[in-house]
C-alpha cells in the first residue's frame, strides 16, 4: 500500500542507524538526504571534521610531546590551513564512502533532495534538478538534526565572523580569536586554536562552563587552557559582533570591546524543522525547532518518530545512533532492552580531553547519597610518565555503604576511551572491589582504575575503623 515500510528524513547518525535497523528487519527502507550532506552534520561539519582537526593539531604541533622534549618542540613550525584540511577532507571522504556502502549493501534506497510533509504518510522530495518526487511510507523517522544559531546582531561573513560550520573553511589561521559560548563546541575549538598558538578569548554568559561536568575536572581543564593563553570572560554576554577593516570587534553587554582577527559564534543550535511543513502531518516544533517525543521516540503522531539532535538533549552522535535504532525497532515491534540514560557517557574532545559516566559529586551531595572519592593521578602511573602526561587524573565516586560505582570522571590522555571500562563495571552492577581485585596490564592508563579503587577503599576503611 505504501512505497516504503520506513522512510527516514536525514542521514546523520540517527537517520543512518534507523534506516539500517529497518532494513535488517527486512523492511523496505529509504533515506532522504540533501545533496552533498550524506552522513549529516556528524560527518560533514560536526563530529568527524572537528575530531580529525584535533588529531591533526595534536600531531603537527607536537603539544603532547612537550613534557618530554621541551616547550619549543614542534613537528612543523609553520602549520597552514592546508596541512589541517588535507587530513580532514581525507577522513570525511572515507566516512561518506563507508556510509554509502553500508546503505546500499543493506538495500536502503537514498533519495536526494529536501523532504517536506504532504500529509502524515506522504513526503515530497524537492530534487536538485527542480523536480518534486512524492513518496509514501507506513512509518517515518525525522532525523533532520540542527544548524548553528545565527542571531541578527552578529555580522556573519563566513571569513572572519563565522559559525561552527564555517570555521572549517577558514582561509588562514588567525592570530587572535573570540569564541562566543563556552558550550562543548566552543570549548573544543577554543582549545584546538589555543594549541595552534592563537590567542583565544572565550565569552560565556553563564557563571561557569560545562556545568554538567565534575567541577574539579572543569577547573583542571580551565587551568590547562589558561596555560595555553586562553582568556575566559564568564558572566559576560555578547551584544553584537562587528566587522571592521582588518578584523572584528566583539561588543559585550558590560561595555567591553574585544578586537580579534576572527570570531567564532557557537552559542547554541536550532532544529532544522522550518522546511518540513510539519503542520501537514499534524506536528509542531518549539521555538528552537525541536520536536517532542515519548520514551519510544514517537511524536504525537504515533507512526512518525523523531530522533537525534532535533529532539534536543543530549544531542550527541553517540546517542542519536542508538535513538535511531530504537525508533526503528519500536516501529516494527522488535523489543529493545531498558532505556537510554543513566549510563550514557559524555566525551569532550578538548585538549586535554574530558569524559565521564554517571553522576557528579554535586549531584550526589544534593541527593544526599553518601559517597567516597578515589583518585588516581597519571603522574603516578608508569604509563603517564612514559606518555609525558602529568596532569591527567581519574576519579571514581563510590557509594560509601554498598561500594557500587556512582560515577567515573576522567581528564587527560585517552579519557574518552578509558571511560568505557567504568561504564561497563557500572552497567554490570559490580562494586569497587572488582577493580581492587582485578589485574590490569602494566604499564597502562587503565591501571588508574585500580589505583583509584584502592584509594577509595582505603578511605572507606578509615571510616569503618571509627565505626568499629
Ligand atoms: C562541531 C561539532 C562537534 C561535535 N562533536 C561531537 C562529538 O565529538 N561526539 C558526539 O557524540 N557528538 C558530537 N557532535 C554532535 C553530533 O554531530 C550530532 O549529535 C549528530 O550529528 C546528530 O545526528 P542527527 O542524526 O540528529 O543528524 P545530523 O547529523 O544533524 O544530520 C541531519 C541530516 O538531515 C538532513 N536534513 C535536514 N533537513 C532535511 C530535509 N528537510 N530533507 C532532507 N534531509 C534533511 C541534513 O542535511 C543533515 O545531513 C558535534 C557537533 C558539532 C556541530
Ligand atoms: N564532544 C561532544 O560530544 C560534542 C562536541 C561538540 C558539540 N556537541 C553537541 O552539540 C550541541 C551544541 O553545542 P553548543 O556548544 O553550540 O551549544 P550549547 O547550547 O551547549 O552552548 C552554548 C553556550 O553559549 C552560551 N551563550 C549563549 N548566548 C551567548 C551570548 N550572547 N554571549 C555569551 N555566551 C552565550 C550559553 O550560555 C551556552 O553555554 C551540544 O548539545 C553538544 O552536546 C557535542
Automatic annotation (TrEMBL):
Binding site for FAD: 51, 309
Keywords, in A-Z order: Cytoplasm, FAD, Flavoprotein, NAD, NADP, Nucleotide-binding, Oxidoreductase
InterPro entries named among the record's database cross-references: Class-I_Pyr_Nuc-Dis_Oxidored (IPR050151), FAD/NAD-bd_sf (IPR036188), FAD/NAD-binding_dom (IPR023753), FAD/NAD-linked_Rdtase_dimer_sf (IPR016156), Pyr_nuc-diS_OxRdtase (IPR001100), Pyr_nucl-diS_OxRdtase_dimer (IPR004099)
First-listed, main subcellular location of the protein, grouped into a coarse class: cytoplasm
Co-factor binding details: Binds 1 FAD per subunit.
GO BP, sorted A to Z: 2-oxoglutarate metabolic process
SUPFAM superfamilies found in the cross-reference section: FAD/NAD(P)-binding domain, FAD/NAD-linked reductases, dimerisation (C-terminal) domain
Cofactor: FAD
Gene Ontology cellular component list: cytosol
UniProt keyword annotation of Cytoplasm present: yes
Described function: Conversion of NADPH, generated by peripheral catabolic pathways, to NADH, which can enter the respiratory chain for energy generation.
Protein name: NAD(P)(+) transhydrogenase (Si-specific)
UniProt source species: Actinopolymorpha pittospori
Amino acid at each position: 500500500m505504501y512505497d516504503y515500510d520506513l522512510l527516514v528524513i536525514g542521514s546523520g547518525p540517527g537517520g543512518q542507524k534507523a534506516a539500517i535497523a529497518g532494513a535488517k528487519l527486512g523492511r523496505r527502507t529509504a533515506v532522504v538526504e540533501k545533496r552533498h550532506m550524506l552522513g549529516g552534520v556528524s560527518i560533514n561539519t560536526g563530529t568527524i571534521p572537528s575530531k580529525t582537526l584535533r588529531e591533526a593539531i595534536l600531531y603537527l604541533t607536537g603539544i603532547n610531546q612537550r613534557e618530554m622534549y621541551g616547550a619549543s618542540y614542534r613537528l612543523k613550525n609553520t602549520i597552514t590551513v592546508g596541512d589541517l584540511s588535507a587530513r580532514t577532507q581525507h577522513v570525511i571522504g572515507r566516512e561518506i564512502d563507508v556510509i554509502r556502502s553500508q546503505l546500499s549493501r543493506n538495500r536502503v534506497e537514498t533519495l536526494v533532495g529536501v523532504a517536506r510533509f504532504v500529509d502524515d504518510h506522504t513526503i515530497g522530495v524537492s530534487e536538485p534538478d527542480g523536480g518534486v518526487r512524492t513518496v509514501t511510507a507506513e512509518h517515518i523517522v525525522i532525523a533532520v538534526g540542527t544548524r548553528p544559531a545565527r542571531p541578527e546582531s552578529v555580522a556573519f561573513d563566513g571569513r572572519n565572523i563565522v559559525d561552527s560550520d564555517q570555521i572549517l573553511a577558514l582561509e588562514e589561521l588567525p592570530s587572535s580569536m573570540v569564541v562566543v559560548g563556552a558550550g562543548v563546541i566552543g570549548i573544543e575549538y577554543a582549545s584546538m586554536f589555543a594549541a595552534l598558538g592563537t590567542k583565544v578569548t572565550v565569552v560565556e554568559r553563564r557563571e561557569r562552563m560545562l556545568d554538567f561536568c565534575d567541577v574539579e575536572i572543569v577547573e583542571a581543564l580551565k587551568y590547562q587552557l589558561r596555560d595555553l593563553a586562553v582568556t575566559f570572560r564568564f558572566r559576560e554576554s555578547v551584544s553584537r559582533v562587528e566587522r571592521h577593516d582588518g578584523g572584528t570587534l566583539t561588543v559585550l553587554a558590560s561595555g567591553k570591546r574585544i578586537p580579534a582577527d576572527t570570531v567564532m559564534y557557537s552559542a547554541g543550535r536550532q532544529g532544522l524543522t522550518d522546511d518540513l511543513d510539519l503542520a501537514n502531518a499534524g506536528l509542531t516544533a518549539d521555538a528552537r525547532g525541536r520536536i517532542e517525543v515519548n520514551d519510544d521516540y514517537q511524536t504525537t503522531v504515533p507512526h512518525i518518530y523523531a530522533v537525534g539532535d532535533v529532539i534536543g538533549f543530549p544531542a550527541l552522535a553517540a546517542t542519536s545512533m542508538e535513538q535511531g535504532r530504537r525508533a526503528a525497532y519500536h516501529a516494527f515491534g522488535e523489543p529493545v532492552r531498558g532505556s537510554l540514560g543513566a549510563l550514557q557517557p559524555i566525551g569532550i574532545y578538548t585538549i586535554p580531553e574530558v569524559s565521564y559516566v554517571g553522576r557528579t559529586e554535586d549531584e550526589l551531595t544534593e541527593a544526599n547519597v553518601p559517597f567516597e572519592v578515589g583518585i588516581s593521578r597519571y603522574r603516578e602511573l608508569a604509563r603517564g610518565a612514559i606518555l609525558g602526561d602529568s596532569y591527567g587524573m581519574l576519579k571514581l565516586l563510590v557509594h560509601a555503604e554498598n561500594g557500587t560505582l556512582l560515577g567515573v570522571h576522567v581528564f587527560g590522555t585517552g579519557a574518552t576511551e578509558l571511560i568505557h571500562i567504568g561504564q561497563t563495571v557500572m552497567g554490570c552492577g559490580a562494586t569497587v572491589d572488582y577493580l581492587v581485585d582485578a589485574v590490569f596490564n602494566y604499564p597502562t592508563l587503565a591501571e588508574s582504575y585500580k589505583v583509584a579503587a584502592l584509594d577509595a577503599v582505603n578511605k572507606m576503611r578509615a571510616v569503618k575503623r571509627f565505626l568499629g
